[in-house]
Amino acid sequence: MGNREEMKASPLIGVVMGSDSDLPVLAPGLELLEAWGVPFEVQILSAHRTPREAAGFAQTAAERGLKVIIAAAGMAAHLPGVVAAYTNLPVIGVPIASGQLQGVDALYAIVQMPPGIPVASVGINAGRNAAILAVQILSLTDPTWQDKLDMYRKNQAEAVLEKNAALKDLGFRAYLEGGQR
Fold first, then answer.
1. Which residue in 87, 66, 58 sits closest to 10, CA to CA?
2. Residue 2 has what pLDDT?
3. Helix (H) or strand (E) holding 62
4. 76/53 Cα distance (integer angstroms)
5. Which of 9, 120, 121, 133 has the fewest CB atoms within 10 Å of its CB?
């Protein structure tokens, strides 16, 4: 499911960003979805510059087979809220570090949605966490994704334990000086 045609054929996760400058933030999560074989689609749509298209993306998401939407935006970060207003699917907002406030304004905009139109939020520039959260949502109804998550967590734990062993073996000074494994 990792090739481009398959991703277009049956996406489960929709990823939308307000600007192509947001793509580098989302790329680590997209790479993870690709590695896990999670079908997804990616679009650039602006809540302000292409409002009809953004609304259409959200309104047709469920009928296109999407189960979860990741929406990234900086500054006023209206895109996640606009998307959530037009769909009942879970929407995960990714605040992008930009402008004078470096994403704090985007974070506040995403987490301060009005009652009845929730948007989940990950941290500023946390595109990878958004992808993981989307897969966690998918795993509620498909054990395939739970297996991917279990392996990911196992690998994370092993990496930490390896670093801990190196720290014990080398001591903190040698570890800091580049002796870590």
1. 66
2. 46
3. none
4. 18
5. 9
Mean pLDDT by 10 residues, the chain (181 residues): 52 97 98 97 97 98 98 95 98 96 96 96 98 98 94 97 95 88 59
Sole residue written with tokens 């489960």: 12
The answer to whether the beta carbons of residues 44 and 18 sit under 8 Å apart is yes
Residues in the chain: 181
Tokens linked to 6: 């398959």
Alpha helices in 3-139 (DSSP H): 4-9, 23-36, 51-59, 78-85, 104-111, 127-139
Token representation of residue 89: 């699917």
- Give the pLDDT of residue 4: 53
SS3 letters for 127-170?
A: HHHHHHHHHHHHHCCCHHHHHHHHHHHHHHHHHHHHHHHHHHHH
For residues 56 and 155, is the Cβ–Cβ distance under 8 A?
no
Smallest Cα–Cα separation from 16: which of 55, 118, 31, 6? 55
